[in-house]
Design goal:
The structure is a homodimer of 145-residue chains. Chain A is mostly helical and 145 residues long. Helices cover 72% and strands 8% of the residues of chain A. Chain A binds a DNA duplex (30 and 30 nucleotides) through helix 5.
DNA sequence: AGTTAATAGTTTAGCGCTAAACTTTCTGTG
DNA sequence: CACAGAAAGTTTAGCGCTAAACTATTAACT
């Protein structure tokens, strides 16, 4: 048994998988750092960006675009509404979402920092590697539907 | 402002980032599926694999190898010990971890299925792409320390 | 119009994870 | 030897996420 497990631990495909999981965890936590200072998480910021991109968007659409459940959106909005970043406007059964002034300010201030951070991390790849990376991700993306 | 945001939404580097985050979420949830049937999560299974790989390993080492906090390991072990999959053996201030019979059985039964699943997902990449992917991940891995 | 379906949102229980404060045990140095 | 500090584990508060059951509104069909 032991030898089987040790053999397994040298399998390049499995090693790639574990590295993938590990790298993502690191990447995401790196991304979170600068946002913590503003008392807004990366997830909340992404949500804010959705609303900034399309004012009046509803929660369902947000959930679909961010690939999360609508329950999750509800929870984040609860907190963000309390923080005065965003507003729900009930229209029948749907909620239309709008940025408050404070929310708009935060997006304006932080978007460049956020983007800079992403680019800084991805800048370790060459043009060619970035192209390869995109193509690989697209493949996964298509496969996993 | 709107035009700036819309311009941003076409930036290839940012698009790559968002795709990366999205793809990982999908990949991880795919990986979880077959494990759910056995009442063991992927994380618990990975932990089980650590113990199988090195019987008598301690929690701290597990935490380091899995890139998680030791508090997290404590929590998982609590549940897994209740399920009778693993045993703690206190030795001074450290806990030595051992698989129970049930735990060993689960590893034996499930390891091939788990590995098959990983390989199936990664098999959409060509040899060349897998090589590229590994090299890209290694770069991130080194950068993020 | 009245009943059935689907759709939007909320709630709740629970897993996964962290950070930070807290025991307990082990060094190491004067 | 004693006492400071490091190291291993535990606890707790809290965020991020899901699934599933729930409410409320709208659509659709006869």
């Amino acid at each position: 048994m032991v030898s089987l497990i040790q053999e397994r631990s040298r399998d390049p495909v499995l090693l790639t998988w574990y590295r993938f999981v590990r790298v993502l965890r690191k990447l995401v936590s790196q991304m979170d750092e600068p946002i913590k200072d503003l008392n807004v998480s990366r997830y909340q910021f992404d949500l804010l960006m959705q609303v900034a991109f399309e004012e009046g968007i509803n929660q369902q659409t947000c959930a679909q675009r961010m690939n999360v459940t609508k329950g999750n959106i509800t929870q984040h909005l609860d907190r963000m509404e309390k923080q005065g970043l965003v507003q729900r406007q009930k229209q029948g059964r749907t909620n239309c979402l709008y940025l408050t002034e404070k929310g708009t300010e935060l997006v304006d201030d932080f978007m460049p920092i956020h983007d800079q951070r992403v680019k800084e991390i991805l800048s370790i790849l060459t043009q060619e590697e970035l192209r390869q990376f995109q193509s690989i991700l697209r493949k996964f993306d298509r496969k996993l539907d």
